[in-house]
Design a protein that fits this description.
By secondary structure, the chain is mostly beta strands. It is built from 1 helix and 25 strands.
Length: 306
């Protein structure tokens, strides 16, 4: 615990700003700017929040963004339904980097991040909720399919030594791990890390633990995962054991990331789209970015190298 943290500041959850996205996703901490970038998928926007000042900027896109990544040399990579783009936050201009490697009438990009070598890994989601989505690796201007046969690609993260890649299928309530070769970017066999119970028929939502959405790994190698509809974050060991649970004031967290100068603040995007009016009345922070101080810092974001 640092000199600026007390037990009261740890686990005190609050909104980082008042803006409520329909479906916030892909939070990304920019260390130089001390700012948080994220997307609103149905709103077709990239957003930038400066937590210290409260300043919020927005860039409107022409299709749904699934995720974003910082590019070495400047700018943001934005994986949209209609392809991969480079966004210049200074003037809002965009340049195409690659066409989508799928039928954009049936799928779109979802969760994704660069690895330590600068390759972009990004998964897809199938609109018809069929197990036709996959995980792609982007390098040298081209996409290559690396894993497949899931419905909703999510939870992408690496262990601190880059020897393990984590991936999840939100629809299946499952988190996986692969042996990862940092030099070649190749994957070993997919293994089940954790499985969570699906919501039973007529089960009250309050009794449902949720399904794994976006995730981040801390400096001790533990995997923080947002449990969509479960109103909680879980911290899992590298073996998949639940070490910690943080209860949240909103039903649908979507993804955490580590930020602030010491990387000990978890910023958590959330969703409000499609939620019942009664629930939204009781949870006014739904759609906002939440933040909470934790003991173990995270890892800095990797850069995409074009």
């Amino acid at each position: 615990m640092s000199s600026t943290d007390t037990p009261d500041t740890l686990y005190r959850i609050e909104p980082a700003g008042p803006h409520a996205a329909a479906l916030g996703e892909s939070p990304l901490w920019h260390a130089e700017e001390q700012a948080l970038y994220y997307v609103d998928i149905p709103g077709q926007q990239v957003l930038r929040l400066h937590p210290a000042s409260g300043d919020l900027r927005q860039w409107q896109l022409d299709s749904e963004p699934g995720c974003i990544a910082l590019i070495a040399g400047g700018g943001l990579a934005v994986a949209q339904r209609n392809g991969l783009w480079r966004l210049n936050p200074q003037d809002g201009s965009r340049q195409p980097l690659a066409a989508p490697p799928y039928d954009a009438g049936r799928q779109r990009f979802n969760d994704g991040k660069p690895d330590a070598q600068g390759r972009l890994w990004v998964g897809t989601i199938d609109d018809a909720r069929l197990p036709d989505a996959g995980l792609y690796r982007y390098e040298r201007g081209a996409f290559q399919l690396m894993a497949k046969d899931i419905v909703t690609s999510n939870g992408l993260a690496w262990s601190p030594d880059q020897r393990t890649l984590y991936w999840s299928d939100t629809k299946a309530h499952e988190i996986y791990r692969f042996a990862f070769d940092p030099a070649s970017g190749s994957l070993g066999e997919r293994q089940l890390l954790a499985r969570f119970p699906a919501r039973a028929a007529n089960q009250p939502l309050e009794a449902y633990g949720g399904r794994p959405d976006g995730a981040a790994v801390d400096a001790q190698g533990c995997y923080w995962v947002a449990m969509f509809e479960g109103q909680r974050l879980l911290r899992l060991s590298p073996e998949g054991q639940v070490l910690q649970e943080l209860r949240l004031p909103v039903r649908c967290p979507t993804m955490p990331t580590f930020g602030d100068a010491d990387l000990r603040t978890l910023y958590i995007t959330t969703a409000r789209a499609g939620r019942p009016a009664e629930e939204l009345a009781q949870q006014p922070w739904a759609g906002c970015v939440l933040r909470v101080r934790v003991e173990v810092p995270g890892l800095p974001a990797h850069l995409l190298r074009l």
